[in-house]
């Protein structure tokens, strides 16, 4: 039933947002977006063009967010902005929850600060670069991209220069779904966050290749794990009965230096109230672990580090576990520290976190374990955050409901900042 409903929605979506047919011969196989890391907020910010005339807009990337929302109250100038009428197919696709002055109400959220505000369903032109997976190519346009207009107030807490958030979650009008429907490509996308605040990472909408200089195609060596649906929304506000748009994976155990850490496994699965489990997030700068998991993992890490003569020093907020860098060697995969493995569907499938993704340099002589304590009753037990995703390519396949991960690209002598942004249009 769900899939029938989905097919219906997808065809409606295609009908309502189909692209300009001015160039009917050109159908992109994938699109590309640049992603910068904001140095002061550690948010990941992407840029594309919107409105008529087109202007570049900066929005914070929210991997599990439901849709694009933009501040329409301040500085929004466009001759093509339209607000679909109440009861329209666009409003039902968007999950509108009311009607006011014949425009559809919707509740956009700032998932960084967990604040929301009243919004309206809207449509406008969006344009961005297509790609062959190697370079940006011809610019393509979706004339009636569905998004939410939000009040200026909910921008608070976002990086400077940002006008909203872009939701890539599992939702009818999520960015991946709208672009896939507009150009009839597969509902797959991939995120590769740069660890540098001065060199851009990339999001590919559509299938690979995903090529990084000097010619490494990160799409060919992915490890796959099933995505789980959390039946209860994890958004700050949501209509009753709505499942979460966020991406959950099944971590079954955690190993430090190859040794299994004793954990309360109940916390690792999602219960009927939608509590527990592991999700991937780009709005959390660092991985957040439920208190008992945090204590167990950090204790194991401290013990393994001590066995290597690594000296613990006082914590530096927000981190509790820090070390003197004097006894820590360096490797191609970052600081030489114990490896943390997230074991997935079976013992042979695990996501390894090496020094480059586990240790944060807080000063010239102190490295901290880049995990934070999420307290004892968080909604989600493990939130894999941005720092742990950097320089790893993560592909989400919505059609087969699985996640592919590359492991650190540093091991393949490249990084997420190595996409060649020179256009070949
Ligand atoms: C397309 O890519 C080129 C080269 O990176 C860039 O200068 C341009 O702004 C991009 N256009 C859009 C619409 O994003
Ligand atoms: C494990 O976690 C569950 C869920 O929070 C809790 O109800 C249970 O008491 C915990 N078990 C132990 C042994 O701590
Ligand atoms: C740690 O330090 C002790 C005492 O200095 C030394 O005996 C031992 O070999 C060192 N271990 C490692 C793994 O470096
Ligand atoms: C990036 O792509 C352009 C266009 O294909 C090419 O001319 C250039 O050599 C590439 N850059 C590198 C460093 O390979």
Automatic annotation (TrEMBL):
InterPro entries recorded: Aspartic_peptidase_A1, PEPTIDASE_A1, Peptidase_aspartic_dom_sf, TAXi_C, TAXi_N, Xylanase_inhibitor_I-like
Claim: Signal is one of the keywords in the record: yes
Coiled coil (UniProt feature): none
Signal peptide coordinates: 1-22
One of the Pfam families matching this protein, by short name: TAXi_N
The Peptidase A1 domain, residue ranges: 44-406
Protein keywords: Signal
Family recorded in the similarity comment: Belongs to the peptidase A1 family.
Name used for this protein in its record: Peptidase A1 domain-containing protein
């Amino acid at each position: 039933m769900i899939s029938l409903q989905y097919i219906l929605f997808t065809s409606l979506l295609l009908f309502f947002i189909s692209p300009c047919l001015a160039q009917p011969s050109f159908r992109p196989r994938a699109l590309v977006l640049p992603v910068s890391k904001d140095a002061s907020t550690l948010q990941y910010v992407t840029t594309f063009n919107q409105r008529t005339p087109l202007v570049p807009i900066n929005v914070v990337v929210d991997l599990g967010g439901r849709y694009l929302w933009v501040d329409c109250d301040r500085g929004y100038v466009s001759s093509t902005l339209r607000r679909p009428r109440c009861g329209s197919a666009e409003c039902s696709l968007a999950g509108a929850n009311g009607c006011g002055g014949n425009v559809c109400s919707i509740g956009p959220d700032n998932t960084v600060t967990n604040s929301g505000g009243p919004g309206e369903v809207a449509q406008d032109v969006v344009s961005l670069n297509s790609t062959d997976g190697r370079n940006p190519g011809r610019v393509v346009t979706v004339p009636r991209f569905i998004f939410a207009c939000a009040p200026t107030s909910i921008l608070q807490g976002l990086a400077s220069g940002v006008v909203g958030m872009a939701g890539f979650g599992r939702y009818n009008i999520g960015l991946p779904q709208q672009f896939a429907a507009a150009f009839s490509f597969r509902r797959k996308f991939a995120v590769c966050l740069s660890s540098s605040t001065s060199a851009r990472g990339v999001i590919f909408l559509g299938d690979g290749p995903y090529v990084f200089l000097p010619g490494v195609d990160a799409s060919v060596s992915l490890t796959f794990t099933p995505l789980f649906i959390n039946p209860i929304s994890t958004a700050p506000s949501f209509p009753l009965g709505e499942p979460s748009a966020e991406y959950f994976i099944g971590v079954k155990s955690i190993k430090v230096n190859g040794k299994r850490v004793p954990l309360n496994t109940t916390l690792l699965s999602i219960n009927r109230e939608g509590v527990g489990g592991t999700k991937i997030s780009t709005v959390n700068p660092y991985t957040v672990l439920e208190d008992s998991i945090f204590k167990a993992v950090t204790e194991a890490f401290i013990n393994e580090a001590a066995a290597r003569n690594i000296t613990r020093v006082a914590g530096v907020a927000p981190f509790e576990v820090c070390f003197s860098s004097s006894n820590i060697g360096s490797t191609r995969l970052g600081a030489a520290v114990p490896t943390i493995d997230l074991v997935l569907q079976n013992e042979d499938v695990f996501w390894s976190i090496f020094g480059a993704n586990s240790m944060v340099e807080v000063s010239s002589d102190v490295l901290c374990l880049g995990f934070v304590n999420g307290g004892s009753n968080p909604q989600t037990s493990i939130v894999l955050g941005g720092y742990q995703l950097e320089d790893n390519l993560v592909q989400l396949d919505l059609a087969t409901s699985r996640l592919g991960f590359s492991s650190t690209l540093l091991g393949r002598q490249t990084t997420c900042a190595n996409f060649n942004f020179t256009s070949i249009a």
